Predict the 3D structure of the following.
Amino acid sequence: MKIVLSLVILFLWSCTYEMNSGGYDKILLQETETIILANTNNAVISDDGRYLFVCDSKSNQIIKYEIKTGKIIKVISPDLSLSDSICFHYRDYPNNYPMLYVSLEDISKTDPELSIANHLRHQFRKVYIRNQKIFVFALVYAPAVDKENYLNKRITNHAVLLEYDESLKLLDAKPFENTFDTHAMSFDCVEIDGEIIATCSDFVRQFQNNIYDSLIILSRYSGDGQFVDKQVYLPEVYLKSKVGYLSSQNVHLLSTGDDVCYIYPTYPYLNFLKTQKSIPLNGISDLNNVGFEKFNPEMEIDLDKYERAFPISLNGLFSDGKNIYVNILQLVFENNETFRTGILQKYDLEGNFIASIELGDYKENKIKYIGYAMKKDCFYLIKMDSQIGWTFEYVNYFNE
Amino acid sequence: MNLRIVLFIWILVSAIISIGGIVPNSFVEIRQLTNLNTGQKLIVTFQEVGGNCVKCYDVPVALIESLKARIELSNIKIVAAVKCNRDIELNVFKKQYDWNYYIYADKKNLAKQLGVKPISGLAVFDYSGKLLLELEAKKGVFAEDIDKLENVLK
């Protein structure tokens, strides 16, 4: 009788935990009425392995979770006052344009109700940790007025690097300098040798002027955000096909220690900044050729056609310190049906291919983000199930 | 006998068409949500939960606000179709925007179901679900767009 009872208790206990194949628990990430996960842009684990920082681009929050319990520890949203970080660093518009960046206090002199505030919807785009500080790459909108009479108002977007302590108290805000033909875009940035490599763009101006020559995609900035030089232009295939002028090409960046590795969303190559190597991704490097060859602006309007032409999309890039991992989504056609399947490829720090694994149907595996937990020495997944909610779990891949 | 069956099918099809045609379930849901009545028109703005460019939200809203100054909106229902995975995400939209009309949780690509281009930010339908107008709702063509809206709604 006791044995039966023990077995029943053991069975019931095992049902309260959902175990994955790696043998780790799945942890439900807490949400509340106002703190909701909608789209995990990226996530990072603290050096001691205790906390998970999630950057959610839709709910526009950085949420600090205790990994063990999944409980929310702290949440921050971009404060309206971030606008002031622009005018504190840069008073004049670039290119001698006759406008001035102004503070919210200045604006309130002519607009006491601060009606402009509705348009200053700053966004958090990426979170990373360095030296126990939390850095957030943000899109910040700044007001500017006519130099002559302060009447004409304009709002511009800026890439700003925000620095927080571990309790998410804001310590510093560094706006990236914009120049005549380089506008920093707050998509991704990486620190190397005390400087910052950040995504930038000039496609709007070149598109308007019908200039088809080259497009800047990465620039180098000093540690405090001053522009140093242009580093990388979009690959020629984007220029020949004109894909680069009509679609936003958001690059993912990764520091490998000595170099910076980067990927484009639709160009299946692993690229390196210093060595200037461009390595085709194993087995999939030519699958987007049809898109580049047959691209036309109509494709952008018809999303189905666009996705069929570019079946490969590179969604993430991360490292365990010894290897580089590329998170890929592939659109597969089978029996007149299309579905997305996940692929994770492993390369060494020089870009030599090691292995590739299939992660299965994107809808079924529910994986929204993959990263590497250094302290635990394994991968972690953030998943979204419309019934359960958002979950966190550790997994072992590549038989490690 | 066969003639009777054909006649029955013909009457059935005619009846369906006369009461509004075969419309996607999602449109029926929106009709119920907004209490849309026969003869009324529906403005749908296609939104996402936060995190998108400011203009994608502001321009459709500005169009509706400008429209209010031109025509009576009593026979027009307005709904934001907000792309999301779960209903709870609508709380984010409510928190981020001062939206004063109906909100519909768009979990299955409503635009595609209703035959609206992905690039469109706003569309107008009649009670039967017929697409009367779709606008990209860009800032540069605001004056043209407001005229088009007025024409189709007055």
In short: The radius of gyration of chain A is 23 Å.
